[in-house]
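Project standup — Tuesday

K.O.: blocked on the structure for the chain from last sprint. Re-posting the sequence here as requested.
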Amino acid sequence: MVTMFLKSMLFPLIFALALAPRSQGVSQSRSQSQPSLATTFNEIKYHGGPLLTKPNSINIYLIWYGAFSRNDRSSITDFFASFNPSKGLVPHQEPTVATWWKTIQTYKDKSGNSVSSTVKLVKQIGDIYSLGKNIKRAQIANYVKHKIETKVLPFDSNGIYLVLTSRDVIVERFCMGSCGFHDNIVVYTERTRLVYAHIGNPLVQCPGLCAWPYSLPAYGPPGQQALVAPNGVGADGMVMNIATIIAGATTNPFKNGYFQGDPLAPLEAVTACPGIFGEGAYSGYPGNLMVDKISKASYNAYGANGRKFLLPAIWELTSSKCKVIH
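H.V.: unblocked you, prediction finished:
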């Protein structure tokens, strides 16, 4: 399985949290004694496999599994709407979610085709615990496959079938070195592999891991304060992890695209840049971020309908560095 936040990237982040002080909603200057994380020792390499490169868009088929608040739903759907600059964005307000995606577009397949230029939420369905509240990863794969084969969801070779689970649902390995994962399945009616993914709501299960820097781990040093989340800790944690997953799923959909290390536990386009969100990031400090004057919420990207989001750095192939949105 392809997972995010595996041990290889968890340790630097958790260790960082134990070291660096941070005050809520306030940008800090980087200490000269702290090394920048903008350049890492990871080198993302292309292994020759296909990417999601069709010219129109990467289509998201969203499954809301469990009970979600209205705020969580609207925050996440607004995130996907933000890939389209015409969807409720204030003119000339930069950087945006679409700006962030431009770095992913520099990833190309062996024919020179770039990753699709945008991401689009095509269809949403809901499910109130048909599999129960304690789920194995294999169940998610079979669940998605069944939805496609029974035509509840369409067959789409350039799509990502994204299962979001609510905060009361326990998914195998979630919070145990993983905030979500992407993988692929064979749909037998078409004999073609499709990409699916899972993201959990970290609000009550592991906010200090999967919603950092909007929540801190319980074992961190005293006196630290989490940053203020613009859309709520659970929603913003999910958005950060969705961004990480779709970046990896598009550039390494079948475990033979762009990655570094073991193909079963790879570092991908975003997971090669753990804990980096702004310029000047170092261990335990996410970097210089914008701060809302009224709410004191920290963010680095503007989105649809007045939303503000925090998006992770992406490994930039041309510079071999972690590129932050700006």
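K.O.: great, moving the ticket to review. The first strand starts at residue 2 and ends at 3. Confidence is low (pLDDT under 50) at residues 1-37.
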